[in-house]
Queue: 2 jobs
Job 1
Amino acid sequence: MKDIRILLAGNPNVGKTTLFNSLCGVHQHTGNYPGVTVDIKEGNRQINDHSLIVSDLPGTYSLSAFTPDEQVARDALLTSNPDAVVQIIDATNIERNLFLTTQMMEIGIPMIIALNMSDLADEQGITIDAECLEKNLKIPVVRIVARTGEGIDTLVENIIRVTGQKTRATHKEIEYPHSVTNYIGEIGNYLSSHASLLGKLSPHYAAIRLMEGDEHLEKMLHDQGLVIPFIDKSDPAERDGIAEDILLARYRTAEEITTCAVKCTMGQVLPADLIDQVLTHRFYGIPIFLACMWFAFQVTFSASNPFLVGIEYIFGYFTELMNEVEMDPFIQSFLSDGVIGGVGSVFVFVPSIFVMFLLLSILEDTGYLARAAFVMDRLMHSIGLHGRSFIPFLIGFGCNVPAIMATRTLQSKADRIITIITIPFMSCAARLPVYVLFAGVFFGAAAGNVIFFLYVLGIFVAIVTALIFRRLVFKDEPSPFIMELPPYRKPSGFAAATHMWHKGREYLKRAGIVIFGGVLLVWALATLPAGVEYGSVDSLAGIIGQALHPVFAPLEFNWQLVVGLIFGFIAKEVVVGSLGTLYGGEEMLESSLAADPTLSPIIALAFMVFVLLYLPCVAALGVIRQEMGNWKWTGIAIGWGIFMAYIFAYLVLHIGSLFIGV
Amino acid sequence: MSNTTYPHKYLYGWTVIVTLTTFIAGFLSILEGARIITRFFILPDIPGGCILILISFIFATAVMKGRSDRPGWISFSYVASLLLLVFAGCSVLIEGGNVLTTIMEGEEEANILTILSPGFIWAGIIAIPLYLGVSKLLYKCSCRGECCE
């Protein structure tokens, strides 16, 4: 069996991960906006006597990396020495994609170009002469549709063929101006005598990178004591001029090849610029976005409610069955209060999670979420955040963990820290069960509005946080926002359903492992010490809740809510699971909450606000620590979250009571 | 551009009708929601009413643009009618879910006709011909420059 190591590279949002999924038969998350992949994902595929080891790189527009995710892609391309690089090119936008091609083909690694979204190009009336492209670039070109798997077999055949060739890859040479060629030759010759310092780079390519102003390479050589006469002694203006000449030569090459290979005729697609005129309108843009989100949450609550009632009925039936069977009271309590009561109360909300992921997936597939980021840019800039921060915010509505990782697409460290601190305020799917439960019990028909309010409040607190940190801690201006708007696409029912299923399955897995563990812990604490009344103030759970109750007394939370908050730190779903256990089972939970004299609509709202803001789960905290790189900022993120939760819950309790009544 | 020379004058005229319908549907939803009136078969819904009025403003912008900027009229009326239809579909899901929940919980007040009560549905039905017409025109706009002729 021969191993073939290939890298999937390309601009952001060209379908690298979709191809990766098709090649390796996996289900990594894809999205119709840039920046979904921020680190390298590996997979493999067996073909006859070959084993393809595929690495999916983050998207990058060039090898002059600025953001951490671009650096990851550049380092992999320059240092990992793969057998071949597959560059995925968006067939609807070839010229822009070819700029990266002109950089990559100079590395000297065998390349294959996969022209993805060929079907969209056809629809748009774009005719591509793949042979002309292949002939000009001296690189095999394969038309594919990664989404449907069309052309993947041909691509694999080409990968095996290209990597089987014994001779070094020779691609088209860029025609630089004479003066630039001289410099490259001179520096290349000089570097040839120090080739061991260059790692896997050829002296010729290293010379081009140095002339382009690759500070990373320059520093690496300097650190190894290598002094390059021209680089150190030349005038910065002269060097800038040469870098510009190289850049222009690359653009000229891309343009010439595109002119030869691409012809446009009248298409059959909606012109994005005309639709963007409305969806990104300076007055209508934000209200349209808010309207879409309002409907998303209304549908999430109302459309999933019948399923929720159905599942409640099933669990209720099992609880009754359990109570009828004669068994040891301890085991009976374990099964009915712990397993059915705790885990059941979390499982009940699975339909809401599924519906929400389905809707977010549809919004994402259409290309609208990227427009939402664009629309929010002005607002984000005015509060001192980078417009691109909105993408992690949107991802945060699903789960905070990938959202925090997505901040790697931000160039400035200050932007990253502020965004990481604010992401936990984006209400992740795990918090939804808490809202659906409490809003359903205490707000009835207005439950959808309450849930929408909580999501907007999360964004508002993120804005306040960003403003405070930008004004007091990071006083520099956020860097400008340039984002490519993806094309509009009809959402694919299959892709949306698949995405929904994978996200929902993750929730079910968590419910099965982490949440089950957490809920059983709460059940044990509610049962022990032996002989006490289950879930009473004399149980260990009651003692813990009572001990911490004074801290939460100004918020008027009872001890059961306090216990829920403490164990919600494991995972937010455990809040509902704990309450299910403490309030005597899933079937009883809603009626018990409604009948509890220590609770009221306004206390329920304050509790939901606290859950929204207080602490991310253990997994999110781990990623915050990893991305921040130190405990100082991790501690600040934790402390700030608890502080904001307390303040806002207090405000909601005391100001909200004027409107809702206690 | 006067309506007499307008190549799609009926569609343009229909935009005016949809604008008014959407605005009235939104206004009534808000009045019903605030319990100022209760005699119309329209869902009391203040946030929904505000969204309908927002969409009527987008339609109104389309009407105003249509006098001089034909692609502008097409894009604004296309997006507004698309939003209206999508939100009408969402309203059916929301009200359908609510009615089904009420029936499953065994409450007697379940009335299946309330599924048709959201203002979005009424305005959405009026907007269907406009959506079909302008989307056809918009497809022609993919060839920039010769747009919508």
Job 2
Amino acid sequence: MTDRLENMALVMPGLLLLGLAFILPVLQMLVLSVSGPDGFTLEHFTRFLSDSYYLGILWRTVRLSALITLITALIGFPLAYIMAKSGPRLRLWLTLIVILPLMTSVVIRTFGWIVLLGRSGMIPSMLRDLGLVGRSFSIIQTESAIVIGMVQVLLPFMTLSVLGVVMSIDGRLEEAARTMGCSFMKTIRTVVLPLSLPGIVAGGLLVFTLSASSFVTPSLLGGSRIQVLAGSIYNAVTQTLEWEFAAAQAVILFVGVALVLVPYLSVTGRRNG
Amino acid sequence: MVSGTPIWARYFAVIFIVCTALFLLAPLFVVMGVSVSESQFISFPPQGFTLHWYEKVLSSDAYVNAAWTSLWIALTVTIAASLIGGAAAIALNRRSLPASGLMSAALLSPLVLPTIIYAIGMLLLWSAIFGPISPLALAIGHTVIALPYVVRTCLAVLADTDPFLEEAARTMGAGRLQRLAFVVLPQIKPGLLAGGFFAFNISFDEAVLSLFLRKPGLTTLPVQIYGQLEFSPDPSVAAVSTMMIGLTIVLLIIIDRTLGLGKIASV
């Protein structure tokens, strides 16, 4: 047995699993999305793209994902920068605070937000008591609830992505900028931010795809009235049992995600390579 | 902090960190609080203190069965993903295979494809070939999602090891299996352990695949919780969630001991 044979034997089970249980199912989905009773058809796609209800779902998905991405970037960049500038002990604690929610089931985190944002939940009651909002004010089952919940779910991805880049910035560059008379804010704006951009872009693309493809948090916090694309796929699979239509919607999501993922992979690839 | 950080920036940093930490941890604290509340309804802040909801969970067939299902699937996934992913990482780390870059990209690809797209594909393919969904379908699906994490942690650990140790063992006459068992395995062990615990956590907490690949009698804990949340939850949902958070904390501590948290962040 040669070395190459040994290595092939080691890597083969993984490749077989990937081929049979990952690539094949995705291909099956692609095939089913264009299958009708009489063979090839595009009717599932035309049904989606010609119905203003579904186009509205698509637009809401894109709009909310963009907003969620923007907010995670606005919180994630300062958080990662502060983490990078902290001492090792504090950084470890902050890492723990970022990773613990990440490793907790998304169902449980959403449950927490249902309690906080619900009709008689803590946050609406507090706002009502402070007189900031009217009696009938409600957050749950609005798009705001989805955004709040999703930002909490996805912030760790953005933070870790930016942290990796910020940690590798040479601290002397900032010192040099300060010595040359730059203010603190100007140093951040002209030195740190541009150098962190690859991490922010990579994190943003990742957050956008994850956000566009999630349905657990949106359907529990937004309710059935505020539908997003992934929730519509889930309904077509479990409620109306229109699997071909679900597959077609998944392909639409897939194409959208691919448009975002190609730049993502080239950004992260450049960084690692 | 960099010397010369203005004082207002330091204050801002402190306030910002406290607010963000609160925001990130709030849902978890709330769930824990609800789980010990005496109120019959889900409410926060909790009223009084009781362990009644924990008793209710432990005596509920639905939750206990779901917990066993989750546990069995997670254990299967842990073993399968560690064996398959560890072996692949060993081969990829040697970099002698043709197209090893392409292979590692393939092995990591489930990481970038949204789970919902994979879940619907898996449901369609399994139904077309084997008919009704079985626990095996779910275990295979979870193994595919968990595999990249095992491969990445193992590759990260192997990157820091000395490749010449294996060469030395070979020169001293150790056979292939001996080298794998006595040189490579000890080298990869921390990665394998951490990756395995990751795999367990992913499978145990995963909701999307489990929601698509479900049928009566095949309900994991996250699916059970999701179902309760859609209808009329009582604080026992919070109790079972708190137990799952506790398990996650235990797993995090173990992963920190085997690999180090700083390293996870970069994986």
